[in-house]
Design brief:
The protein is α+β, with helices and mostly antiparallel strands. The protein has two domains: 4-198 and 305-385, no CATH class; 201-299, no CATH class. The chain is built from ten helices and 27 strands. The chain has helices at residues 16-30, 49-59, 105-110, 113-120, 140-150, 226-235, 239-244, 301-317, 334-338, 343-352; strands at 4-10, 36-41, 65-69, 72-75, 78-81, 86-92, 97-103, 128-133, 156-160, 172-174, 177-179, 182-188, 193-198, 201-203, 208-214, 217-221, 224-225, 249-254, 267-270, 272-276, 281-284, 293-299, 324-330, 357-362, 365-369, 372-376, 380-385. The strands form four sheets. Strands 14, 15, 16, 17, 18, 19, 20, 21 and 22 form a nine-stranded antiparallel sheet that branches. It has a six-stranded mixed sheet with strand order 1-6-2-3-10-11. Helix 2 links the parallel strand 2 and strand 3.
């Protein structure tokens, strides 16, 4: 029996009728009971959350539900910002072992590599992990470092959830209960998970090896002061790009040194924290190493548009034929970045057709670059299920 998916995006205030209708329609389209249900709801659904989850469990015949709150929702070809509603996806994965692991705030802070291996048990051999976390409870980078050390080379994708206008109405759920910090679901066998991580940048200037660095401060790049290399990269831009560059230049750190021709997608993008023209130093929101290749990057709507479409087309050229997608988009993308609604969701449908899709706007996105997992910002992380 092949893998299958069905999804619905409902943009209205909570009502039993709307939830029942969406769950039944998805179940009918799927034609069998789901292996897992993904659901994201806006913060105004919280008073009704117990009823919402009970109805989904009953009418979608769900034995495993994971999801949480969202400031904006994503469905097939559609992004809904500042609207009430929910996004629902049913997945039937008959040959896949699914292993949900929930954890609390204390575990997210204190668990070591060994602790995570012990907690996960037989799910240790998962081929991919889906992560959903509460940003108020999970210190994402320390957690991800310990998690990735426990399961090296295994892609982890997903996001830190978002919520209401105050930013503190954020929650994660597993089955019919809210959970303290987060949930990770392991996928083993049956389904292939292909990740697209679009950081929205394009390289500018030339790549050079870092020749001097202490902690997060880069002192020299290619034997010249780092600030001089930054200025050199800025001067390489066209007049039009220079006008857009203020606050939009970032550092790209190569994730693989064994590349002859660095291009979009070969770098981990990190913020410039500060720079000092007098000393020539540039401080990053990262800890680069001497010998690592650095190339400065420009982030704008044009770069973000081109990169996402390029990466999706690359997956298609590689022969990926997904039956469903999961989208985790930074809250800084959407209409605010692109000047139009539903840019990223439409890019998926333009490349792969009307896949049953689910997703949300996040407070931080998690996905692999190269063979390592990272926490990102301003990024689209898309899981293509094949």
């Amino acid at each position: 029996m092949p893998n299958a998916a069905a999804s619905r995006l409902v943009l209205e205030a909570y009502s039993e009728a709307a939830v029942i209708s969406a769950a039944r329609e998805c179940l009918q389209q799927l034609g069998r009971n789901p292996s897992i249900v993904l659901a994201f709801v806006t913060a105004d659904y919280r008073p009704h959350l117990a009823d919402f989850l009970e109805l989904v469990q009953l009418h979608a015949h769900a034995t495993l539900i994971v999801g949480g709150s969202a400031s904006g929702l994503i469905g097939t070809g559609v992004e809904a910002e500042d609207k009430s509603g929910f996004s629902l996806q049913l997945l039937s994965l008959p040959d896949t072992r699914l292993c949900p692991i929930t954890f609390n705030e204390e575990q997210s802070d204190d668990f070591t590599e060994a602790d995570w291996k012990a907690a996960v048990g037989r799910a240790e051999d998962s081929d991919a992990w889906l992560f959903l976390g509460n940003p108020l409870k999970v210190a994402a980078e320390p957690w991800l470092n310990a998690w990735s050390a426990a399961f090296p080379g295994v892609p982890t994708f997903g996001g830190l959830l978002s919520g209401g206008e105050r930013g503190d109405d954020v929650f994660v759920f597993h089955n019919r209960s809210e959970i303290d910090a987060g949930v990770v679901v392991g996928f083993k066998g049956g389904v292939k998970v292909h990740t697209v991580v679009s950081q929205g940048c394009r390289p500018i200037g030339e790549p050079h090896a870092i020749t001097g660095a202490t902690d997060n401060v880069v002192k020299s790049i290619g034997s010249l002061p780092a600030y001089d290399r930054l200025n050199e990269s800025f001067e390489s831009l066209s007049a039009e790009d220079k006008a857009r560059a203020a606050g939009n230049i970032f550092a790209g750190l190569a994730v693989n040194e064994y590349v002859d021709d660095f291009k979009t997608g070969d770098f981990l993008i990190r913020n410039l924290v500060n720079y000092d023209p007098d000393s020539g130093a540039v401080a990053l929101a990262a800890y680069p190493r001497v010998g690592q290749t650095l190339q400065f990057q420009l982030r704008d709507r044009h770069s973000a548009d081109e990169e996402l479409k390029h990466l999706l087309a690359q997956k298609a050229k590689e022969g990926v034929r997904p039956f469903a997608s999961l989208a985790f988009l930074c809250g800084g993308r959407g209409e605010g970045l692109f000047g139009k609604l539903s840019h990223d969701a439409e890019a998926i449908t333009q490349q792969f057709g009307g896949l049953p899709s689910v997703g949300l706007f996040c407070n931080g996105e998690i996905g692999p670059v190269g063979k390592a997992n990272f926490v990102h910002g301003y990024t689209a992380v898309i899981g293509l299920l094949e």
